[in-house]
Amino acid sequence: MCGFSGYFGTVRDGRALLGRMTAAIAHRGPDEQGFFTTKAAGLGHARLSIVGLGDGQQPMSDATGDLTIAFNGEIFNYVELREQLRAKGRHFRTASDTEVILHLYDEMGEDCVSALNGDFAFALWDGRRRRMVLARDRMGVRPLFYTRQGERLYFASEIKALLQAPDVAAEIDPVALDQIFTLWAPIAPRTAFRNIYELEPASLMIVQEGSVSTRPYWSLEYPDRDAPPRHRDERAAAEELRALLTEATRIRMRADVPVGAYLSGGLDSSITSALAAGMAPGGLRTFSVTFDSAEHD
Fold first, then answer.
1. Confidence grade of residue 230 (pLDDT, cut at 50, 70, 90)
2. Alpha-carbon distance 170 to 183, whole Å?
3. Which of 90, 121, 231, 270 fits as disulfide partner to 85, beta carbons 3.0 to 4.6 Å?
4. Which of 8, 58, 64, 73 is nearest to 38 (CA)?
C-alpha cells in the first residue's frame, strides 16, 4: 500500500501544499516521500516499498522528463509487459513496475490501462500535452478521490489529504448520508463529503486546461441467460477454475520483500493461502486477527 496526492491548476506554494497533503496519508507509505511540481500541476507520494526497493522512488519521471507518475498498487504482469516493451526497443532504468506504466503510456496513451493486470490507482502528468491522467483498477481495489474547486482539481488516495487544501471544506453530503444509512455505503462517485468524489472503478479521468472528462475503460460481461454453459463437464470446469486461481496467485507472489497472507477464516483466504504456500521458497507466513470480546471474535 502506498499513497499519493496532487493537484492540477495554479496553486499558491504547491510544494508546501503537497507536503501537507502527503503528510496526512503518511501511514500508507512509511518508507519515504517524494514530490514533483510544475507551474500547472504537482504530485506527492508516500511509498511502501514492495517492488524495486532501491530504484522505485516516486513520483517517477521518464528519461525525457515529460511524463511523471505517482502510483499506488501493483502491476502483476509487469514482467511480461517489460519484456514486450524491451522487444520494441525500450530501455529501462529501474526494476520497478512503476516504470513499466510510464513506457506503456508513452506507447499507447491512456489506453495503456487495458494492458494492465493489477490493483492500481495512478496520476500521470503528461507534460507534452499539458494534461493529468487519473486511472483506477477494474474492481476499484485501490482508492482515488478528487474534488474540483474553481479551475483547480485536487486528488489523493484518501479524503483526509484533500482536506489539507485551503479551499476544501469537510461538509456532509445529506444524499450520501441517506445512502450510507440505507445501503451501508454511498453510491459512487458520491462520498460522505459534499463536492468530494471518488473516481469510479475501471475509469479514466483526463484533465486539461478548461476541460475534465471521465470515461470507463472496462466493464463486466455477463453471458446470455439462454446461452449454453461453457462446461457441461463439472471436472473440466473445476480444472479451469483451479488453473485460473493458481495463475492469479502466482503473479501476485512477485515482490522484493517477503510475502504473507491474512487468514480471515473464510474459503477465499484459505484457498489462496494453500496455493501460495507451495510458491513461497522460504515458506508462507500467515496472520489472523482476534478480538478480546467473544461476541465479536
1. confident
2. 22
3. 90
4. 8
Q: Which is nearest to 158 in space by CA: 46, 50, 48?
A: 46
Buried b (16+ CB within 10 A) or exposed e, 134-149: bbbbbebebbbbbbbb
Q: Identity (one letter) of the amino acid at 245?
A: L
The CATH number for 3-216, chosen from 3.30.1020.10, 3.40.50.1220, 3.60.20.10, 3.30.930.10, is 3.60.20.10
Domain borders along the chain are 3-216, 234-287
Q: Which residue has the higher pLDDT, 11 or 54?
A: 11
Query: Could you give the angle at the alpha carbon of 262 between the alpha carbons of 259 and 267, nearest 5°?
Result: 120
Contacts of 85 (CB under 8 A, 6+ apart): 92, 100, 103, 104, 107
- In the sheet with 41-47, reading across from the earlier edge strand, the strands are 32-37, 41-47, 3-8, 152-156, 145-149, 197-198
What is this structure's pTM? 0.91
| Residue 245 binned pLDDT confidence (cut-offs 50, 70, 90) | very high
**269-281 pLDDT, tens digit each:** 999 999 999 898 8
Is 112 in the active site? no
Which position among 1, 2, 9, 256 bears the catalytic label?
A: 2
